[in-house]
Design brief:
By secondary structure, the chain is α/β, with parallel strands linked by helices. 52% of the residues lie in helices and 12% in strands. The protein is elongated, with a radius of gyration of 21 Å. InterPro entries: AAA+_ATPase, P-loop_NTPase, Signal_recog_particl_SRP54_hlx, SR_rcpt_FtsY, SRP/SRP_N, SRP54_GTPase_dom, SRP54_N_sf.
Length: 314
């Protein structure tokens, strides 16, 4: 995790517990029931565990990986009680989340301003995530500029204006239909002139025409690189956790269009499909950096895999 934020406190841990309660109830309540009448790991139990994990949108490939590892460990460790099996599952899930390494960014966090290009399809909560992230960064003492480079939708510019005001961030915008690359350039230029710490650049949420999207993102990057060849340091893909495996498919498509080195999972509080976080992290090997666990301006948290697993099993 980059060093923008201090370690989680008790309040954020309680928010996380509440935010993923539906996933916990849907996934691990079923898991607990499956364990109650078991004295060993057999094929019937593994079949039931597989069904539980898939129903939580962990994904088929990741589920089979977990099942194979549990089976191998149960045989090797001569599993006898439910507590040991729960510990095994906990360790395997933590390991899958830990395996996703942060891909090298173009420059270090110390290179100011740190530029985050935010991508994602319409409806996933991209605009609100930018606003919440601006607030989160502002609370940690960072000076934040936001670029309204999604000029395709007038509503996107208006929404960002509201969120920027809430977050205490500076919004740079042009009129609807303006060149997104021009907005991105102006934003970075103003941020540099005013010694800003972080720049968040919104982008159009279109994926139906991959060629156009790829060209647009490349143009935005080229425009900003005229000012600093090392930006953006981060390309953050926003995904809606409530869509389950559709979020995974969107991520795969965006990875075909541009290099993504961080993920934000929104709407975890409203879904029992939070297991998708495990599958996405494992299959795509792109780290989850933020999770959205509510509607409020403060309901975006840096993702902490240890806290996430602890909350699931608490």
């Amino acid at each position: 995790m980059f060093g923008f934020f201090s370690k989680r406190n008790k309040e954020s841990k309680e928010s996380l517990d509440r935010g993923i309660s539906k996933t916990k109830e849907g996934l691990f309540a079923k898991f607990a029931r499956a364990l109650t009448s078991r004295s060993k790991v057999d094929d019937d139990f593994l079949d039931e565990l597989e069904e539980i994990l898939i129903s939580a949108d962990v994904g088929v490939e990741t589920t089979l990986k977990i099942i194979d590892r549990i089976k191998a460990r149960a045989l090797a460790d001569r599993y006898l009680d439910t507590e040991e099996l729960q510990a095994m599952l906990r360790e395997e899930i933590r390991g899958l989340l830990a395996d996703a390494k942060v891909k090298n960014s173009a420059a270090s966090e110390e290179s100011k301003p740190y530029v985050i290009l935010v991508v994602g399809v319409n409806g996933v909560g991209k605009t609100t995530t930018i606003g919440k992230l601006a607030y989160l960064l502002g609370q940690s003492g960072k000076k934040v500029y936001i670029g309204a480079a999604d000029t395709f939708r007038a509503a996107a510019i208006d929404q960002l204006a509201v969120w920027a005001e809430r977050a205490g961030a500076t919004l740079i915008k042009q009129q609807m239909g303006a060149d997104p690359a021009s907005v991105a350039f102006d934003t970075l230029n103003a941020a540099c002139a005013n010694n800003a710490d972080v720049v968040l650049v919104d982008t159009a949420g279109r994926l139906h025409n991959k060629v156009n999207l790829m060209q647009e993102l490349a143009k935005i990057k080229r425009a900003m690189q005229k000012l600093n060849p090392n930006v953006p340091q981060e390309i953050l893909l926003v995904l809606d956790a409530s869509t389950g495996q559709n979020a995974y498919e969107q991520a795969k498509q965006f990875l075909q269009v541009t290099e993504i080195n961080a993920l934000a999972l929104t709407k975890l509080d409203g879904t029992a499909r939070g297991g998708v976080a495990i599958g996405i992290s494992d299959q795509l090997q792109v780290p989850i950096k933020y999770i959205g666990i509510g509607e409020g301006v403060g309901d975006l948290q840096p993702f902490d895999k240890e806290a996430f697993v602890d909350s699931l099993f608490a």
